[in-house]
C-alpha cells in the first residue's frame, strides 16, 4: 500500500498529463459514436492514441522542470485547440474538421458564433476537466535540485537521452502494431466496410476518426494535406491533359438551350433489359421512351465490380473510373470537380441534391457526392421506419412525403439526381 502511495505521489504529474490527453480522445469518440462504423473500445484507435501520448508525455519528461512544462503545455494547447475545432465543427456540419477546410476560413467566420452556441455541453465540460488536469500536471512537475557550485545548464543538457530512446522505441513499436489490428485491406467493391481500407485511403473523415483515434487522425490529416508528395504525372500525360482542358469547343445544334431554365430530374436505374420496357410491364418508362428524346448511340464503359457507383461517377464528373474495382469510390473523394454536372448546374442557379434508398456510407456516397458538388445527399434508409423494408424502398424515394417535398420543390430551380 505504501509502495502504491509513493508511486502515485512521485508520478502524479505524468498520470495527470496522460489523462488530460486521453480524455480528449475518448470523449470525442464516445459522444460521436452514432457514426456507428467502428467500436470505440476496439484496439486500433486506443493503441494509436496511447502511442502518441507515450511520445508526447514521454519526451516532455525527458527534460527537467522548465523545458518539461513548456513542451507539455504547448502540446496540450495544440491538442485542446484541435479538440474544440473538431467537436464544434462536427456538431455543426456532422463531419470532422479537415485541414483542407482552412482555405474557407474567412467564410467560416460567419457561422462560428452559431456553431459554438449550438455545440453540446459535453464539449465544454470536457474542456474544463482537461484544463484542470493540465494545470495540476504543470504544477506537480518535479522541481530541479539546485546546486550552487554547478555551472548553469544549457537547455539541451537537461535532456535524458536514454529515456528518450526508450520512449521513441515504445512509440514506434505500438504505432506500427496499431494498423495491423484493423485487419487486412481488400480490393473488392465493398471496401468501405473494411476498417483497414478506411485507414489506408483516409477518404472519409468520420470513419477515419473512428478507426484511428483523435491524435492519429489529426496527424494523418495534416500529413495528407501538407506533407504527402503528389503523384508524379509523366510529362507526356501532363501535356495531353493540358491540351484537352485548354481546348475551347462550343457545340450548338437545334437542341441547344431547348430546356434552358427547366427543372431537372436525373434518374439512374440499376439495370433494365430492353424486353422489359413494354406498355404492359413498365408503362411509364415505355411512354417516356416513345414520347421524348431518346439517346441510343452511347458508349457504356464496363469496369467490373462496383459498376453502379462507377456509372454515377462518370455521369457526374465526365471521367471514366480506373480499372481497379474500388478506386473510383474510395480514392477520389477529396478531389475538386469544378466542371462536374452538379457544379455546372449550381453555377446556372440550380439547387442540386442527390437521393438514394441506401445508407450514406455505401460506396462512400456521402463524401463522394459532396466532392461532386451536390448540396446534399439524402438517404431514405437512415429513417428508422424503413430499415426492414429495403425491398420496396426504391418506390418510396418518391412516395415518401418528406422526400417527395424535397424532390419536387417548386419554390426554386432544382436539379435532382435519383439513384
Describe the structure concisely.
The protein is mainly α and 419 residues long. The chain has helices at residues 2-31, 43-60, 65-93, 105-117, 121-139, 161-177, 195-201, 205-227, 235-246, 283-290, 307-317, 327-330, 341-347, 365-372, 393-399, 401-407, and strands at 264-267, 351-356, 376-379, 414-418.
Keywords for this entry:
16 helices, about 425 residues, elongated, mainly alpha, 4 strands, about 5% strand
Q: Can you describe this structure?
A:
The chain has about 425 residues and is mainly alpha-helical. It is about 55% helix and about 5% strand. The protein contains 16 helices and four strands. The protein has a four-stranded parallel beta sheet, with helices on one face. The model has no long low-confidence stretch (mean pLDDT about 85).
Order of strands side by side in the largest beta sheet? Answer: 1-4-2-3
Chain-averaged pLDDT = 86
Q: Which shape, going by the Cα principal axes?
A: elongated
| Beginning-to-end CA distance, first to last residue | 66 Å
Instruction: Name the poorly predicted regions.
Output: none
Report the portion of residues in β strands. Answer: under 5%
Main sheet attributes: strand count, strand direction, barrel closure: 4 strands, parallel
Class computed from helices, strands and strand pairing: mainly alpha
Determine Rg (CA atoms, Å): 27 Å
Q: What's the helical proportion of residues? A: 40-55%
Give the beta-strand count.
4
What's the total helix number?
A: 16
SSE series: HHHHHHHHHEHHHHEHEHHE
Amino acid at each position: 500500500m505504501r509502495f502504491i502511495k509513493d508511486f502515485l505521489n512521485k508520478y502524479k504529474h505524468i498520470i495527470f498529463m496522460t489523462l488530460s490527453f486521453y480524455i480528449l480522445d475518448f470523449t470525442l469518440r464516445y459522444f460521436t459514436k452514432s457514426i456507428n462504423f467502428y467500436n470505440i473500445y476496439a484496439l486500433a484507435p486506443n493503441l494509436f492514441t496511447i502511442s502518441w501520448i507515450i511520445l508526447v508525455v514521454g519526451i516532455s519528461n525527458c527534460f527537467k522542470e522548465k523545458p518539461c512544462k513548456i513542451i507539455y503545455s504547448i502540446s496540450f494547447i495544440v491538442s485542446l485547440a484541435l479538440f474544440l475545432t473538431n467537436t464544434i465543427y462536427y456538431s455543426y456540419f456532422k463531419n470532422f474538421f479537415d485541414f483542407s477546410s482552412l482555405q474557407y476560413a474567412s467564410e467560416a467566420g460567419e457561422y462560428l458564433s452559431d456553431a459554438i452556441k449550438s455545440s453540446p455541453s459535453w464539449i465544454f465540460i470536457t474542456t474544463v476537466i482537461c484544463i484542470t488536469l493540465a494545470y495540476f500536471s504543470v504544477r506537480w512537475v518535479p522541481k530541479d535540485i539546485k546546486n550552487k557550485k554547478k555551472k548553469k545548464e544549457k537547455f539541451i543538457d537537461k535532456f535524458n537521452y536514454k529515456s528518450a530512446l526508450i520512449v521513441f522505441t515504445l512509440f514506434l513499436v505500438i504505432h506500427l502494431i496499431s494498423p495491423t489490428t484493423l485487419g487486412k485491406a481488400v480490393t473488392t467493391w465493398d471496401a468501405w466496410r473494411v476498417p483497414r481500407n478506411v485507414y489506408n485511403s483516409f477518404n472519409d473523415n468520420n470513419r477515419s476518426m473512428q478507426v484511428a483515434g483523435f491524435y492519429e487522425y489529426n496527424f494523418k490529416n495534416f500529413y495528407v494535406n501538407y506533407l504527402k508528395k503528389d503523384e508524379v504525372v509523366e510529362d507526356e500525360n501532363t501535356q495531353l491533359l493540358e491540351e484537352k482542358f485548354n481546348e475551347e469547343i462550343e457545340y450548338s445544334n437545334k437542341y441547344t438551350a431547348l430546356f434552358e431554365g427547366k427543372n431537372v430530374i436525373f434518374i439512374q436505374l440499376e439495370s433494365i433489359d430492353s424486353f422489359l420496357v413494354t406498355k404492359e410491364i413498365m408503362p411509364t418508362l415505355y411512354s417516356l421512351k416513345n414520347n421524348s428524346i431518346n439517346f441510343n448511340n452511347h458508349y457504356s464503359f464496363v469496369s467490373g465490380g462496383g459498376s453502379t457507383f462507377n456509372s454515377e461517377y462518370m455521369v457526374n464528373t465526365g471521367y471514366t473510373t480506373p480499372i481497379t474495382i474500388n478506386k473510383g469510390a474510395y480514392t477520389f473523394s477529396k478531389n475538386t470537380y469544378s466542371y462536374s454536372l452538379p457544379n455546372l448546374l449550381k453555377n446556372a442557379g440550380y439547387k442540386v441534391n442527390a437521393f438514394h434508398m441506401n445508407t450514406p456510407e455505401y460506396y462512400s456516397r456521402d463524401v463522394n457526392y459532396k466532392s461532386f458538388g451536390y448540396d446534399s445527399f439524402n438517404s431514405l434508409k437512415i429513417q428508422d421506419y424503413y430499415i426492414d423494408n429495403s425491398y420496396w424502398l426504391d418506390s418510396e424515394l418518391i412516395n415518401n412525403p418528406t422526400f417527395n417535398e424535397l424532390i419536387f420543390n417548386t419554390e426554386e430551380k432544382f436539379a435532382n439526381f435519383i439513384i
